[in-house]
């Protein structure tokens, strides 16, 4: 498959992928990884904020160059999971998703585990939202 960024200046114009687009792809790929409870915007706050999927780029910091990208993810993991294994899975999922969808080469995916979520806390928070 030809990388669209190898020839980002085409006869029709240039191709530039916004940092936000890469952030959304990375955030979605990370949140779909088994063992990830949610994305964090920095310091872990409430569970509702943590698990919200409205802002898919939340908890993601990206630096996009012309042909490469570096990604930092701020996540919380499910209690009982092997954190190092979950972090490796997130790195692989995010790298694969971003490279396949954008053609950018992902040079690093840094995973910052900022919390552990207990299922009981999630259930209480969901009950509070339903009321």
Quaternary state, please? single chain
Give the biggest beta sheet: 4 strands, mixed
Number of domains: 1
CATH architecture grouping? 2-Layer Sandwich
What is the 3D shape? elongated
As a percent range, the share of strand residues is 25-35%
Explain what you see.
The protein is α+β, with helices and mostly antiparallel strands. It has a single domain (15-130), classed as Cation efflux protein, cytoplasmic domain (Alpha-Beta Plaits). The chain is built from four helices and six strands, in the order ββαβαββαβα. Strands 3, 4, 5 and 6 form a four-stranded mixed beta sheet that branches. The protein has a two-stranded antiparallel sheet with strand order 1-2. α1 (19-31) crosses α3 (83-102). The longest helix has 20 residues, at 83-102. The protein is elongated and about 55 Å long. The N and C termini lie far apart (50 Å).
């Amino acid at each position: 498959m030809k990388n669209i960024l190898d020839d980002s200046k085409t006869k029709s114009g240039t191709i530039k992928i916004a940092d936000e687009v890469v952030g959304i792809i990375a955030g979605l790929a990370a949140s779909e990884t088994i063992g990830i409870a949610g994305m964090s915007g920095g310091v872990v706050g409430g569970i509702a904020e943590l698990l919200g999927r409205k802002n898919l780029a939340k908890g993601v910091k990206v630096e996009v160059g012309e042909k490469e990208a570096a990604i930092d993810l701020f996540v919380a993991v499910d209690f009982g999971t092997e954190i190092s294994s979950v972090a490796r899975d997130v790195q692989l999922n995010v790298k694969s998703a971003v490279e396949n969808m954008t053609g950018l080469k992902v040079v690093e995916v840094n995973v910052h585990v900022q919390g552990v979520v207990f299922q009981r806390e999630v259930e209480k928070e969901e009950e509070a939202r339903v009321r």
